[in-house]
Amino acid sequence: MEFSCKYKREKSLFSLDLLRHFLGQPSQAGGVEGLGALYRAHAGGSGATCPLGTGRPFSVEPWAAWRRRRRLCILKGIYPHEPKHKKKVNKGSTAARTFYLIKDIKFLLHEPIVNKFREYKVFVRKLRKAYGKSEWNTVERLKDNKPNYKLDHIVKERYPTFIDALRDLDDALSMCFLFSTFPRTGKCHVHTIQLCRRLAVEFMHYVIAARALRKVFLSIKGIYYQAEVLGQPIVWITPYTFSHDHPTDVDYRVMATFTEFYTTLLGFVNFRLYQSLNLHYPPKLEGQAHTEAKASEDTYALDSESSMEKLAALSASLARVVVPTEEEAEVDEFPADGEMAAQEEDHRKELEAQEKHKKLFEGLKFFLNREVPREALAFVIRSFGGLVSWDKSLCIGATYDVTDSSITHQIVDRPGQQTPTIGRYYVQPQWVFDSVNARLLLPVSDYFPGVQLPPHLSPFVSEKEGDYVPPEKLKLLALQRGEHPGNLNESEQEDEEEDNEGDDEEGEKEEDIEAGSEEEEEARLTALEERRMEGRVQAPPTAPEEPRMEGKKPRVMAGTVKLEDRQRLAQEEESEAKRLAIMMMKKREKYLYNKIMFGKRRKIREANKLAEKRKAHDEAVRSEKKAKKARPV
Fold first, then answer.
1. Burial group, residue 25, by CB count within 10 angstroms (0-12, 13-18, 19+)
2. Are 20 and 60 in contact (CB under 8 A)?
3. Which fold has domain 357-462?
4. Least confident of 16-30, 216-230, 259-273, 427-441
5. Coiled coil: which residue ranges (predicted)?
6. β-sheet bridge partners, residue 215
7. Does position 64 have pLDDT exceeding 80, yes or no?
8. Domain boundary assignment for the chain
9. How does DSSP classify residue 36?
């Protein structure tokens, strides 16, 4: 991969001094060069190409210089650009190359951190020389004077306001949660892993204290969380707590550069969020919880690690600087009419539903068995006001034992382990996540140990008109409306099938009756037509029509009443108007209209295909149950 700037016709776009500024070399005499002053680092090359019009190649390592520039671009938030005419910009070549805008590269010219990079390069060279000469005193002196730099000014530069930082917090949280699960190997620095773990725990404690969690989804990639912080939705993903094996085809240096900036950003954000809730930063546990846990937890960790382990348990509340008086926020009511009143009423109902959702698990006590994911469940349960504990031999932070009689729910994932205790529900972990997404406590009968679990629906998907809606989602919507659809068992399904068969037979009888009545009506109309024809035949054919009508009285015949279907007529008029409008479209408008209609028809076909698959699946499950029921024991 090569490094260059986007081609422009102006010749004075990139200076040689700027190039040497990146490479850490002193400037030489010479003004602004042309486009040939671009630095192109060729993979496997012996060096860098020389500028246009000069015969002096640079004596630097190309990949080292490329990594330094890439690191600086990542920290400053400068990303590559894909040109519209890539072959033209690349001078006819189709080789893989990364393009940057020249104005973005010029923006890096006055960055103060570049001087720190130069100092660090000199430090590494001196340290390598001291190691080679075995000058250990010099090595110690150089390590004590190792150049350091901070990214605070870059954070303030990229995010002028706090809301801007919150809007860009998704990637920072995902990267920090990922690095916090890495093992302590040579791939990543131990200090970076520990820092990411501390920042992730601090953010989870803020979400618990602010009751900011909104949605949870368990996917193949990991666990997706959505929290609402100061009105901004933040979505991040955390990996499952499995043993991690570093892949060989991943460049951890790029990830470490991103993480270096993200840890600085997340540290600022955590400090500001803790200050908004009057919490101590760095976080501290409440004195009562700290005192109760000290006697039993000192045996698990050293004093230096005990505090972090207790915070990571997520079972105790944080200490506040000043305990605020809890006052319920009252919504101001103003006299309004019409649409404004309806909007205010909808907003008030939404706030009430949100407050109710925050207290979903309030008054409930959970106990986690050792086979369930402890951290994820503790984080979700505590975020909605519930109390949670586990076996004290499993992890630090257990607040009560399994024998506590006030436990309402015990989360298990292995059926038939122990004798059940009267007065508590034994449910699988999915019940907690589904209840959070449904904004209500779901019936526990579908989540008993050993029961086949219902599908875990994604809360991030909202069905639109024409989309396929699974039956479980319809049932969930009915529960949210306050209805109780219930869960049909096999016998009820068979009764329903028999009722449907009976309804089909009754429908066939009604169709026969209707067919008979139609035949009678048709026979009556045929007889009337024959009588009318007989009257015409009996009349003299040569007589003129007018005298005949004058000589005879008009005969009144029985007719049928034809009711006008106004709805059908309106639909016909609407379809006719639509057809005429399509005919009057321009060619471009008609092309766009056909594309829109093709997309709608494709969506309908996909929804029908999913409905057919679901129907076939339900029939297969039903037949399997019947076969199992009919099988002799």
1. middle
2. no
3. Rossmann fold (3.40.50)
4. 16-30
5. none
6. 226
7. no
8. 2-111, 152-283, 357-462
9. G
